[in-house]
Write a structure and sequence with these properties.
Blueprint lengths: L6 H34 L3 H6 L5 E5 L2 H7 L7 E6 L4 H5 L6 E5 L2 E2 L3 H9 L6 E8 L2 E8 L5
Antiparallel strand pairs: 1-2, 2-3, 3-4, 3-5, 5-6
Length: 146
Amino acid sequence: MTQRPFAGVMIMFWLCLCPVVVLAQNTAQEALDALDSALESPPADEAAKGGWLGLTIQGVDESTAGELGMSNNEGALVNSVLSENPADKAGVKVGDVILEINGEAVADASDMLRKIASRRPGDKIHLTLFRKGEKLKVSAVLGRRE
């Protein structure tokens, strides 16, 4: 029988590495769980700080921009509007594209979320919307997410 001098070392290395891999997997899972929890329910003091419109949005891809008659794919497309919330009271409709907030261009959905979250409940904002080929302006008073 031929001896392999490194076989024992490889087994020892593998046995030493296994706990590290398991630990890394557990740590990664814990990090993902913490992130999911933070996204689902922000801490009460943080939720109270940022403004809220009461709608869901998505980015505007080139195909959607073309279908809507837009010249570019900037802005945030409104997917849903919650009844009796700030966006609804302001007249925002499903299918609108939010192009500007207080005169500042909205690059995409993430940019819009940052702009709204950086304001406080009770702040009045002015939105420029793209609806059925036309731009229109509406005002909304930000609420608090409950």
